[in-house]
Design brief:
The chain is an alpha+beta fold. It has a domain at about 25-100: TATA-Binding Protein. Helix content is about 30%, strand content about 20%. The strands form 2 sheets. The chain has a 4-stranded antiparallel β-sheet with strand order 1-2-3-4, with helices on one face. It has a 3-stranded antiparallel β-sheet with strand order 5-6-7, with helices on one face. It is flat, with a radius of gyration of 24 Å. The protein starts with about 25 loop residues before the first helix and ends in a 9-residue tail after the last helix. The model has no long low-confidence stretch (mean pLDDT about 80).
């Protein structure tokens, strides 16, 4: 359909064909994923074998790694000159803004020191507890025993589905680095279709 403000009464069934993708439209990401990798490959990068959004470039014994996530680019290298060169190359081709050192990524907190890089979930977990109303809940060291049997309907009141499923999805994401909670979260997933509040 013709967008508001661009209606043509003479040709009401005609629509515009874009010469290039506009940021924010559905087609923009596809256009970006076609253009950006080609640009990197022409400039001496090679694509990761397992992850198509990972690009590598070697210069002598040094390595530059570039990771693309939607329209964010994360990069790092074994030498500052590689990072500076990459930043200049990107700015010469694309209109972009450079952020500071990476501190957050997809819920992860990242702290870089001279001794190495530490990645943790502390903020993600605190936000999850706050959103689920469990910030002041008492913590326990013992997880659910594998012999525990939960029942589908014990007469408890129903739970609001959207928030429950949101919490379970957040916990599933957390299990990537927390294998100790996989069993518990898996038990909760089983009850996605019959949500009950257990007091």
């Amino acid at each position: 359909m013709q967008p508001p403000g661009f209606e043509n009464n003479e040709f009401p069934n005609h629509v515009f064909k874009l010469d290039k993708a506009l940021y924010g439209l559905k087609q923009a990401l596809r256009a970006w994923y076609e253009r950006f990798p080609n640009f990197l490959l022409k400039n001496g990068f090679r694509r990761g074998k397992v992850d198509n959004t990972l690009f590598l470039k070697s210069k002598g014994e040094h390595l530059l790694i570039v990771q693309v996530y939607v329209d964010d680019i994360i990069f790092g290298g074994t030498h500052n000159d590689l990072c500076d060169d990459f930043s200049k190359m990107m700015r010469s081709e694309f209109e972009m803004s450079m952020m500071a050192e990476l501190k957050f990524l997809l819920g992860l907190q990242i702290k870089q020191t001279s001794n190495g890089t530490m990645i943790h979930w502390q903020k993600y977990i605190k936000d999850l507890l706050r959103r689920s109303g469990m910030k002041s809940a008492k913590s326990i060291d013992t997880r659910i025993s594998p012999s525990t049997r939960l029942v589908m309907d014990d007469g408890s009141p129903s739970v609001e589905e959207k928030s429950y499923r949101g919490m379970i999805g957040s916990l599933l994401y957390l299990t990537v680095s927390r294998p100790d909670i996989v069993f518990n979260v898996s038990l909760c997933v089983v009850f996605n279709l019959n949500l009950k509040k257990h007091i």
